[in-house]
Design goal:
Elements lengths: L1 E7 L5 E7 L5 H14 L12 E3 L2 H18 L4 H6 L1 H13 L6 H17 L6 E3 H10 L2 H4 L6 E3 L2 H15 L6 H16 L7 H9 L8 H7 L4 H34 L15 H9 L9 H9 L9 H62 L1 E3 H9 L3
Parallel strand pairs: 3-4, 5-6
Antiparallel strand pairs: 1-2
Helix pairs in contact: 1-2, 1-4, 2-5, 8-10, 8-15, 9-15, 12-13, 12-15
Length: 392
Amino acid sequence: MTQSTLISQTRTPRFKIYSSSAGSGKTYTLAKEYLKLALKTSSQWYFTHILAVTFTNKAAEEMKERILKYLRQFSAEDPKDLEDSSGIFRQILEELQSEGIVIDEKELRARASRTFKHIIHEYANFSVSTIDSFVQRIVSAFTEELGFPFNFEVSLDSEVLMEAAVQKMMEKANSETFEHITEAIKSYALEKANEGKSWNNLPQELAGFGKNLLSDQNQEAIEKLTELTAEDFLVIERQLKQFCSYAEEKIQLTAKLFIETFESEDLLVEDFPYGQSGVAGHFLKIANGDFFKEAGTRVTKALETGEWYSKTKPAPVKAKIDGISEMLGIYGQMILDLQNEHKPKYFLYKELLKNIKKLSLLSQLKAEIRSIQDETGAIHISEFNRKFLKLY
């Protein structure tokens, strides 16, 4: 079941809804209603105040042809034309008269003749079009505000646009002016190679990745992202690395202080409960680079209770550990506190660093798309829709 609507503004505003299945005469009904509006006044220009919109170019052309055909037949002298159009002509005449409009057959045919001639001479003002065409006409009045080229056209082909953008970006690779692009492309290629994908498919991979720019999802975030320049991404990358290095160094340094504290007393990891899998082994692993190793119950219990050795340990060992237990507790707790403080940002920044070069490519692809749009005047439908919504 499909539905078409026609809104007319006359002496009394009315909203009519016609609901019918495909092939049951919607075009006939809508053409009839259009003609009633166009012929209800004596002005041959009234058709310029009527807007008819439909979904497809085919439907729009069919409706235009039907309207012009009826107008020509209404004013024709050929008996066959008069006979072929007698049904709809009689319907329009009777319905206009029933609405209180004073008109007879002669006047209706005269109005049809004048309207037909003026539509032919002013065809650009014969507004029967698709919804997309109508919206584009509206947007054409706001090209400057929306940042569109004056003679823009809406493009539906995402693949062609993205392939052209990737090609323009690839042409900048290995250029001294665009070293950041070269590095980003190399990084992306190595990542795909590690995934077992061929280097030969790099342009296609980049085009597939770049389609995120044309998606309606997360557009607000993508728009903010693409405002950044290549230099901005380099600064961000440096800042992310600095924070991660700072967090690693601070945690590692404190862990080394923990290790040095018991080693200075000629103690070994094995002198502590559970050896390598116990509290001393845990902090040794952190000192060796496992910066955010999670503390188990053996570690937390030692820090909470201050029990750093088993009852079976020799007295000399116990005495040495007792002498440093306070410092071991302080350093151990400091490590846990540092981990808890820096862990959320650290792992977020690590993930960002994995993708920072790809994000810079996304920004560059957006710049290439803008360049293509400026050169060709072709605006992708996703960009068109987003900008159009800003008019509301």
